[in-house]
Amino acid sequence: MLTISRLAAYAGVTVRAVRHYHKIGLLPEPERDRSGYRTYDAAAVVRLIRIRALADAGVPLARVQELLDAGQEEFTGGVQEIDKDLRAEIRRLQDTRKRLARLAAGEHLALPQSVVDYLDRLRGLGVGERYIELERDAWIMIAAQVPDLIDAVIVRKHQELDDPDMVKLYSLVSGAPDWSADDPRVVEVADILERLMIRTLEAGEVGDDGFDDQFVALLDSTMLESAPGAARLLAILKERGWRGWTRIERVPADRLNTELPSS
User: 249-250 and 242-243 as β-strands: parallel, antiparallel, unpaired?
Assistant: First the structure.
């Protein structure tokens, strides 16, 4: 008859593991000798080795019991099911590692790849990191609001970058956070925006952006807080019959007269 320490040694496990298997019911409690010590036989060694083999193979302890007591066909089916679960877990862990690798690059937190690629294209055009950060934060909010539409939105943004006016606009607003309110470039930005919007209207490309008014106001307020000249830019556009930044709209003349401040 074997002591618990000898049993553990023969099976290649620790005494602590043996006691744990007793506790969870994988290894039946043996008879005790007159001194109260557990004593084990060869069957206990065999069962413990089988437990260890299954555990080392990645079988969850919660499934070990059913496999130990299963017939050959049931055992094979159980192993195949565990293998399927493990393969799914491996895929999940691989996806997690990929996400972590992207996060390590610093740009992928809460952003889909399409937006990251777009921001990289802006960098290639010479847009400064300070403005990139402002646009990145806006895209994080937008992607969370319209996750199913974000890739299509980015496709349109790439198409817009084929327009020299849009490239010029980005080259200007890249430095906008440092402009004063009376910087003459604010007027130049307004001119470019107006040309872009006129062409957009003429092409019939203005449609529902999928945002509610409160979200649009949030994005606009972020822009207003980012640059001293932003409020002046919106005022200039309003004088010309346009309203907004995230969602620039044509204001009818009759409404424009009532919305403009009296002199």
Answer: antiparallel
Task: State the Cα–Cα distance between residues 187 and 234, nearest whole angstrom.
Answer: 10
DSSP SS3 for 243: strand
pLDDT in the model for residue 123:
92
**pLDDT reading at 262 higher than 50:** no
| Mean pLDDT lowest among 73-82, 179-188, 202-211 | 202-211
Query: What Rg value do the Cα atoms of the chain yield, rounded?
Result: 34
Q: What is the pLDDT of residue 100?
A: 73
Going from N- to C-terminal start, the domains of the chain cover 4-102, 106-259
Q: What is the dihedral of CA 153, 203, 246, 260, to 10 degrees?
A: -170
Collapsing DSSP states into helix, strand and coil, what is residue 27?
coil
The answer to whether 121 and 160 are in contact (CB under 8 A) is no
In this structure, CATH architecture of domain 4-102: Orthogonal Bundle (1.10)
Question: pLDDT tens across 141-168, in order?
Answer: 888 888 888 999 899 999 999 999 999 9
- The predicted model gives 41-63 an average pLDDT of 89
Task: Give the integer Cα–Cα distance in Å for 192 and 165.
Answer: 6
Q: Residue 73: CB partners within 8 Å, gap ≥ 6?
A: none
Contacts 24+ apart (CB under 8 A), 233-239: 233/186, 233/189, 233/190, 233/193, 236/186, 236/187, 236/190, 237/190, 237/193, 237/194
Q: How far apart are CA 17 and CA 10, in angstroms?
A: 13
Task: Answer whether 0.85 is exceeded by the pTM.
Answer: no
Coil, strand or helix: which one is 250? Answer: strand
Residue 135 makes CB contacts below 8 A (sequence gap 6+) with 119, 122
